Amino acid sequence: MDKDKNKLKLTSSEIGSLWGEYVNGTMTDIVNRYMFSIIEDESIKAIFDDAIKTFEKQKKQIATFMENDGFPVPIGFTESDLNKGSERLFTDIFCLNYLHIMTLHGLLGHTASLSVSVRKDLRDFYDSCDNDAKRMYHQTIELMLEKGIFQRDPLFYPAKNPEFVSSQDFKDGLLGKGRRLAATEIIFISFNLKKSVMAKALSIGFSQVSQSKEVRKFLEDTENTSDSQVQSLSKIMHKDNLPVPKSMETEVTASTDSPFSDKLMLYHIGFLFQTAQVYQGTGLASAMRTDLVTTYEGIILKNLMVTKKWFNIMVKNKWLEQPPLAPNRKEISKEK
Q: Distance between the two ends of the chain, CA-based, in angstroms?
């Protein structure tokens, strides 16, 4: 019976998940391979080696799933997007932080893929991907803690008893009237801050080395956008005298020697801004203070404008690979 279940045709959601996992995975893999080549710290290098070998296994399995159902395997990103022998663009510490943040993306991505998968072989595959990502998550955190570079979220002090909201003022946050931030709100403020800090640093590094003036201008704009998001969320945290994640600009070297194709760098930043909208939307849904709601709405609107520009540049340069589309019934009928 299980074998029959695995012979079921892939659904649109299942093929879409596999397609996305392949394209985004090959992008991250190219960056990981470059970072592995420049890292000097052996303990950090070992985790990257694990990440590269893990994805190689996953990549083959994804390709097999797609080929068995007659779908072409996406091109994604290949060795042609990696300029071997280029100078160091990032420090070892940045590389470790990068792997940690991208592992978080992987964890959430595998969970989403699992949630739309029906076939048992696919569910088993995403279970194994999830376990791999959890292992990587633990490894990166343990090493960052060991090196003293992991910044934990703010600490709270326990109240004596459970409390209930007693006033409509609980949702006020404008003009200095707001109550203190709730722990449930800080979850996503902190998460979005860490991601924006990483996006800003990557934008700085990529803009230094990109070959195209158009791409460089876009990356400079995303640097400014990320910085404004960091400042907006940090301002809210600072009002409650809460710490924010440290910036990572100093972990980017002064190199102008590009390790990657412009296509990869542009796609990577677009990926970060697209996924950020998901997390910012979740933050908006959890916000119960008016100033926080307004801040998230502004950030999301700006991100939509950024991704629109990103899409136009990607299409103009024929860099945006098309995912599988629903059948065009009108075109099919014309072929008769």
A: 38
